[in-house]
Amino acid sequence: MAEGRIIKALSGFYYVQAGGEVYQCRGRGVFRNRKVTPLVGDFVSFDENDDGGGYIMNIKERENELVRPPIANIDQVIIITSAVAPGFSSMLLDRFLVLIENKEITPVIFITKMDAAKEQEKEEIRQYAEDYQGIGYDVELLSAKDSQNLPVLDHYFQDKVTVFAGQSGVGKSSLLNALHPSLLLETGEISKSLGRGRHTTRHVELVTVRGGLVADTPGFSALEFAEVEEEELADCFPEMRERKRLCKFRGCRHHKEPKCAVKEAVETGEIKSYRYEHYLQFLEEIQTRKPRY
């Protein structure tokens, strides 16, 4: 029995990379009976056939997994957001950050199209970048001309499994094309009438980029907190997570409770007010969502 990693799933086949070769495998019926679906990124053991194919026999325990896109064992998610077209939104960025923090995956922030922004927009985005760096996130501000100077980004990819995430139209496929020109991914034009890009990425596949593996994923149009519980939300904001032990009440929701260290940090400016406002909006959203049965 051989061991490898699933790098692509397409039409019922799983393409497993092992020892420099790729084997086209099928999943055993036992997985269907257990309602377990092999995912791109899974480490698996498989039985080889003589024709270069095989059957997946076992899936190793996952470190983490995402539902959308369906992928497992990720080191980091690079959130790609743009300065303009679509315009930068700290609210949308925070939604992505919460979903990634909730999975205990490292987020990295790339803000593209800086060269297309007006001077005032650039100044505002630089301030946001400073805020997020202050929280502890890596932030890169990128312009179209940076596609000729991408070696400065190599350290983000080396020996890591990376997922790109972001709204449609922010330049995920364009950036991947610049990082790995032989991919020639289809890049969708932004539909001005809809204000979003077309879904140009059809399936999840891990490709070798700059010494690591990268998955390009479809643009997200909905980012609900279906898997985030209200008691977990503050932990998805690192600046709140590190202060919650100082709150008077255990299980403090940092909303209406007295002697709350998080609210005090908002008042002193140690926690940015817009981050706290987003937290309250997300908390209300989680508290009022319909129960799942």
Automatic annotation (TrEMBL):
It holds the Pfam family RsgA_N. Residues 63-223 form the CP-type G domain. Its main location: cytoplasm. It is found in: Cytoplasm. Residues 72-221 form the EngC GTPase domain. InterPro entries: G_CP_dom, NA-bd_OB-fold, P-loop_NTPase, Ribosome_biogen_GTPase_RsgA, RsgA_GTPase_dom, RsgA_N. One of several proteins that assist in the late maturation steps of the functional core of the 30S ribosomal subunit. Helps release RbfA from mature subunits. May play a role in the assembly of ribosomal proteins into the subunit. Circularly permuted GTPase that catalyzes slow GTP hydrolysis, GTPase activity is stimulated by the 30S ribosomal subunit. Belongs to the TRAFAC class YlqF/YawG GTPase family. RsgA subfamily. This is Small ribosomal subunit biogenesis GTPase RsgA. It comes from Virgibacillus xinjiangensis. The gene is rsgA.
